[in-house]
Amino acid sequence: MQIEHIQQVVEVDTPVRNRLGQRIQQGLSAGEFHLVFQGIYRSRTRELERIEALIRWNHPDYGLLLPDTFVSALHDDLEVAVDVTHFVIDRACAQLAACLRAGQMAHPLALNVPPSVAAQENFAAEVEAIARMHGVAPELLEIELVETEDTAKILATRTLTRPLRDAGIHISMDDFGTGYSSLALLSAMDVDTVKLARELLAFVPTRQRASAVIAGILALLEELDIRVVVEGVETADQAHWLEQWPNVLVQGYYFSLPTGDLSAVLDGIDTTRRSTSTAARTLGLR
């Protein structure tokens, strides 16, 4: 069975999604999941600014599965979503702690979290406890919420953000610009970072209108004093165009591919493979 077919079936079949949730929990227990890390850099200086942790599933039958293949189960089953989130936070903190003990420079680490998990009453306390158990300062963590219909409203009302702020944990919104976010809520949202959806950059800088849209968004977020990460930077032309905004952060294949070696990212070792092969792109997908 092809991975694309698996994803199509999961999206429309509730019983399949339920079984997928159970299989994910089995996979967590069996050690089938692991993390990879991708650097996020300053647009002009190319200096490493922060890092994102991404989950991967080494399925014994289907090989390497990316989050898009199994993320629907996290939306449908809170227990599965919590288990996966705790796995990501624990493994990320463990690896970051090992790097810090080896004397490497600390950089903030972004962790993808479903909004349903982040909205749980004890979530901030659990994140802080896991971080401190590994000897990692909570201030080094940034909780990255995928943009959903509820995320912007939650962030705007601050019912979610206050406990995270009290713990010193940073907050970002992922995939901004193509989904549910309202510009009317943007000024009220309590976020440190907004990550622009990669679709916004797809035709930049070759198409004037596409370039004008993203330029306007960058100017607006800069005026609101919100840190911006532009995802999906794949070409030298895109990277050069974004240098107009020296405070903008960039992420994508052009700068580095995800790697399981966090220490290599922290040391600034070049993990890029400027190949356009299917294999290289598959490894780079989120």
From TrEMBL:
InterPro entries referenced in this protein's UniProt entry, alphabetically = Cyclic-di-GMP_PDE-like, EAL_dom, EAL_sf
Q: Which Gene3D superfamilies match?
A: EAL domain
* PROSITE patterns per the UniProt record, alphabetical: EAL
Tell me which domain of life the UniProt entry assigns to the organism this sequence originates from: Bacteria
Which residue positions does the secretion signal occupy?
A: none
Q: Which Pfam families does the record associate with it?
A: EAL (PF00563)
The EAL domain, residue ranges: 17-272
Please report the name of this protein according to its UniProt entry. Answer: EAL domain-containing protein
